[in-house]
Design goal:
Helix content: 25-40%
CATH superfamily of one domain: RNA-binding S4 domain
CATH topology of one domain: Structural Genomics Hypothetical 15.5 Kd Protein In mrcA-pckA Intergenic Region, Chain A
CATH architecture of one domain: Roll
Number of helices: 4
CATH class of one domain: Alpha Beta
Largest sheet: 5 strands, antiparallel
Number of strands: 7
């Protein structure tokens, strides 16, 4: 068993990225952190390192339990990493998921003219003109 593995290979092997080139690109953009410091794709990791993956606005953190360069079966991933993401980051992730589910149904297309008018009536404030009537009548 190896004592060090390139970070881009490990990220791909444990299925955090679909391709190794995507993992390398994330490293290049500074979205991969090792012990809080940005890492290049060629950076070697060891057992016990904490790897951070930025996926806006959340920073996921994983502790390296074992090393591999070969792509793993999804069932085996838990043997190679441990999720140590902080609770506040998890909450931020859950809020983001809830926010994406609000609004119009996916695939329903653009709003119709009636739906747009109803939305405008709901959003725009209602003002009384002076000649609309007495305030006491309300």
């Amino acid at each position: 068993m190896k004592s060090e593995v390139r970070i881009d290979k490990w990220l791909w092997a444990v299925r955090l990225f679909k391709t190794r080139s995507q993992a390398a690109e994330a490293c290049k953009k500074g979205k991969i952190l090792i012990h809080g410091q940005p890492a290049k794709a060629s950076h070697n990791i060891r057992i016990g390192d904490v790897v951070g993956v930025k996926r806006n606005p959340v920073l996921f953190s994983y502790k390296v339990i074992a090393l591999t360069e070969n792509r793993l079966n999804a069932k085996l991933v838990a043997e190679y990493l441990m999720d140590v993401t902080t609770p506040d980051q998890r909450e931020l992730y859950e809020l983001g998921k809830l926010n994406n589910n609000s609004g119009r149904m996916r695939g329903s297309g653009r709003p119709t003219k009636k739906e747009r008018r109803d939305l405008e009536d709901f959003v725009e404030p209602f003002f009384l003109d002076e000649d609309d009537g007495d305030w006491e009548d309300l």
